[in-house]
Amino acid sequence: MRIEIPQAQAYIESLASGEALSKRKSRTFAEELGLGKICLSPSEGHLLAFLVRMHECRKFVEIGTLTGLSAQYIIEGMGGEGELWTLEKTDLHAKKAMEAIAEHPSGKNIHVIVGDARFTLESLKVSGPFDGVFID
């Protein structure tokens, strides 16, 4: 028996727990910007958090914040105790991300850096070394 991809994806998503208000806010902001389709699905977010947790990451860099959804999954993968630097080129996206992240219990451990990563990444050298990088 062959399962259709949309059916399989729906099943996998049904296994993921619901998202907290801060994550739903990030999703809503992305949809308002017309970029909702490029957000992680809940199951992808849980997978990302699992991989971060499995590798026991404590310091992490994300390139491409959008509205902060993946940042929230990454910090949760670190048990809420690690530190994440997330780089976003677009001012409006960074503003929306900061608003959503402020409501996350570990939001204080997420540093949103605004600017083109080709230039802002260099400034993170002093905070390294890092355990992982997620390029979104």
Describe this structure in words.
By secondary structure, the protein is an alpha/beta fold. The chain is 44% helix and 15% strand. Strands 3-2-1-4 form a four-stranded parallel sheet, with helices on one face. The termini are far apart.
SSE map:
Elements (H helix, E strand, L loop, with lengths): L4 H11 L5 H12 L9 H13 L4 E5 L5 H9 L5 E6 L2 H11 L8 E5 L2 H4 L11 E4 L1
Parallel strand pairs: 1-2, 1-4, 2-3
Please name the defining characteristics of this protein.
136 residues; alpha/beta; 6 helices
- The helix/strand series, from N terminus to C terminus, equals HHHEHEHEHE
Cα Rg: 15 Å
Binned, the helix content reads 40-55%
Low-confidence stretches: none
- Mean pLDDT across the residues is 91
Largest sheet: number of strands, sense, barrel closure: 4 strands, parallel
| DSSP strand count | 4
Distance between the termini: 34 Å
